[in-house]
Amino acid sequence: MNAGFAMVEAGMCRSKNAVNILAKNLIVFALAVTAYWFIGYKIMYNASWVIPGWFKFGGLFFDPTVTPEMVTNGSLVPSIDFLFQAAFAGTAATIVSGLVAERIKFGEFVIFSLILVGVLYPISGSWQWNVGEGWLNKLGFIDFAGSTVVHSFGAWAGLIGAMLLGPRIGKFVDGKPQAIPGHNLALATLGCLILWIGWYGFNPGSWLAMAPEVPYIAVTTTLGAAGGAIAATLASQLPGMGPDKRPGKPDLTMTINGILAGLVGVTAGCDGFSMPGSWVVGFISGIIVVFSVAFIDSIKIDDPVGAFSVHGVCGIWATLAVGLFNVDKGLLTGHGFSQLWIQIIGTAAFAVFAIVSSWIVWSVIGALFGGIRVSESEEVIGLDIGEHGMEAYPDFATSAK
Asked: Residue 103's Cα: distance from chain center in Å?
């Protein structure tokens, strides 16, 4: 997953920031594993409730002991569970990277990522993924593999960062959004395909056992991605939506984001959607992402890779879609509004917590370190030189003699 995110983000941004983006995506997983191992896992799982259903704390580190009962019952052992859950935690932080790309200070991003993965993400995640214990899980909220728990949460955290940072230099001229093309769409396409493969670990793997449901979930996941790709490719050809705002020209970046939007779209309900329902949910996700990217631009928020549209907006849609398309509880499958209302409550709860907590953390980091944005001169020359003193493509640089 981190390989895919790194390729997509680097490819869709400018070459002068490629080293910075790759460095962020590498270090963020190392940070995520460390913070989640140090404290996050024991806030989210295998700990006593300090505030029942709302907040856990079990001290530092996790107990890797495997008991005879775990072996006899075929239970998920702590070490395996930690590795699996750490990947989700790392994804939440990586989503933030895309929203703040090309203008965030490296050190300040590192600090935010540590707090996000070590404290913020585990608190809200515990509400849902402690079966029968978290307040949202007891309410009946459904988010099978994390459309809201992971994707929307990370997107809201990144959106607050993007708003506090402000847009990149040249993104808006006379109030109108300007295209800032990525430097390598082959890299971005490869990243998209790597992410698609990675999703088979996330969605089918979330069954937490090898069972007949696993290949079924793999198929619904695939159909969601396919529907998203087709819809986004079509929608990008509408007037005002293409790369040069002329109709009839498919936008590769929107096809990429359509695939990712479709994957996010089925993540919440991939175990409970029919196969046709999965494709439809993905197709709608592909339409939503195209219009969402245009809307985010229209309100003058700079999201370089469309991360909020893919993970935030489509994460919200995915979670609500469970209340519509779930075969056993969905409104459109004849089971009334009750599940949809629960999905709305859960989506709103995660959004409020992510917005408020992220705003506090970003603001405190900015106050302590003199802001979170690089200087204008650094941004103009590129974060590769300003933040790292190196370039991704030195052979193409002009050297002074």
From this structure: 19
CA 392 vs CA 13, 190, 322, 324, 372: distances in Å: 12, 18, 43, 46, 23
Count of Cβ atoms closer than 10 Å to residue 349 Cβ: 18
Hey, what long-range contacts does 295-298 have (CB within 8 A, 24 or more apart)? Answer: 297/177, 298/177
Token pair for residue 397?
């640089």
Residue 192 neighbours by CB distance under 10 Å = 25
Cβ–Cβ under 8 Å, residues 310 and 257? yes
- With 0-12 / 13-18 / 19 or more C-beta atoms within 10 angstroms meaning exposed / middle / buried, residue 250 is middle
pTM over 0.85: yes
Give the separation between CA 287 and CA 309, rounded to whole angstroms.
11
**68-87 average pLDDT score:** 87
d(CA 4, CA 310): 14
Contact 101, 13 (CB under 8 A): yes
Structure token digits, residue 364: 């405190």
The tokens for 400 are 């002074």
What is the DSSP code string of 274-337? -HHHHHHHHHHHHHHHHHHHHHHHHTT---TT-HIIIIIIHHHHHHHHHHHH-TTT-GGGT--S
- Counting Cα atoms < 13 Å in the Cβ hemisphere of 99 gives 31
**What are the pLDDT digits (tens) for 292-349?**
999 999 999 999 999 999 999 999 999 999 999 999 999 999 999 999 999 999 999 9
User: How far, in Å, CA of 250 to CA of 230, rounded?
Assistant: 11
